Amino acid sequence: MSEYFRKPIVKTLMLKGQEGQSIKGITKTGTSGLVDTYTVTLTDGTTSTFTVKNGREVSSIRKTGAKGLEDNYTISFNDGTTSTFSITNGKGISSIKKTGTNGLVDTYTTTYNDGTTSTFTVTNGEGIQNLQIGGRNLYYLKDFSTINMTRISNYSVENGEITITASDRDIYFGFVAVSEGESYSNKYGPLMYVEGKSFVTISISNPELSNNYITFFDKDKKSISFINILSNAKKGLMIPSGATYSTLRVGTADAVPGTTYKTRIKVELGNIATDWTPAPEDLETTAITNAEIDNIVK
Predict the structure, then answer these.
(1) Quick one: which of 142, 153, 122, 103 has its CA closest to 59?
(2) What pLDDT does residue 147 have?
(3) Which residues partner with 71 through β-bridges?
(4) Among 201-205, 229-233, 280-284, 289-293, which range has the highest average pLDDT?
(5) Rounded CA gap, 35 and 281, in Å?
């Protein structure tokens, strides 16, 4: 048992998980062109911001050229972009109407004076309804001793922080399935449940650990795909169809042998990252003092 848990315990409690901060409000606080800025206010008074790009609308359609029997028309949108289409002489435009919507794509129908029609589509920007804010940390550390360690001479876990010592340049903990159909085992690390969700966000506090992979598994714990994450925080990774679980491999290809690296990890469902909190699994069965709880969440 670590020095952390050997100190005297005066007042104990059994935790069944710990809630993170909650959102007090989301307010639009600015607009620049087609980009709106929103501010998220948490219950502790802290704030963060994100932006939403609004959709496009047709501003005008005008004839901009002719060649032989063909007239060229330019569609101008409210974001300054344009597209073109052509009409064979003898036909004129009677009307243009929006005739359908599928997700972020609007369909417009052009009706000509000879009764024929044609269509074009406009893809709108992402709306606030598509934002998914995370919270619960899926990356638990209670079984960290069973995880694969490659070119790591020593490791420890304390207060949710992982400490590793490099024995070579290319180091990592966890594992990645590079082929489909590989079976999950403890070497991959925590098995995180992601079924039925659209996005997963990964936050790794140490930017030096920048060569990372997420593997997705199906309901039978067979690998279906993986993604290389070349940054310390990757927001809004799309969860592939058929994925039930995911695992994480963390490391760097530029380690200095003998150097110690420390990091905290948070994996959460959604595409908006939140502050680090312990995974509930790491607190469920451990009796600790109130002072120790304060140290963990700071």
Answers:
(1) 122
(2) 96
(3) 66, 87
(4) 201-205
(5) 40
What is the pLDDT of the chain when averaged over all its residues? 79
The last residue of one of the domains, among 95, 124, 153, is 124
Q: What six digits make up the tokens of 118?
A: 């044609």
136 alpha-carbon distance from chain centroid: 14
The 8 Å CB, 24+ separation contacts for 231-235 are 231/207, 232/203, 232/204, 232/205, 232/206, 232/207, 233/201, 233/202, 233/203, 233/204, 233/273, 234/201, 234/202, 235/201, 235/271, 235/272, 235/273
Residue 74 confidence (pLDDT) above 60: yes
The C-alpha atoms of residue 112 and residue 61 are separated, in whole angstroms, by 14
**N- to C-terminal Cα separation, the chain:** 22
Comparison of pLDDT for 285 and 202, the residue scoring more: 202
Amino acid identity of 250?
Answer: V
Among 99, 124, 149, where does a domain finish?
124
Q: How far is CA 60 from the centre of its chain?
A: 37
Rounded to two decimals, the pTM is 0.54
Of 125, 123, 104, which Cα lies nearest the Cα of 54? Answer: 125
Q: How many other CB atoms are found less than 10 A from the CB of residue 164?
A: 26
- Do 108 and 215 sit in the same domain of this protein? no
Residue 172 tokens, joined: 């990592």
Residue 72 shares a structural domain with residue 181: no
Residues 108 and 142 in one domain: no
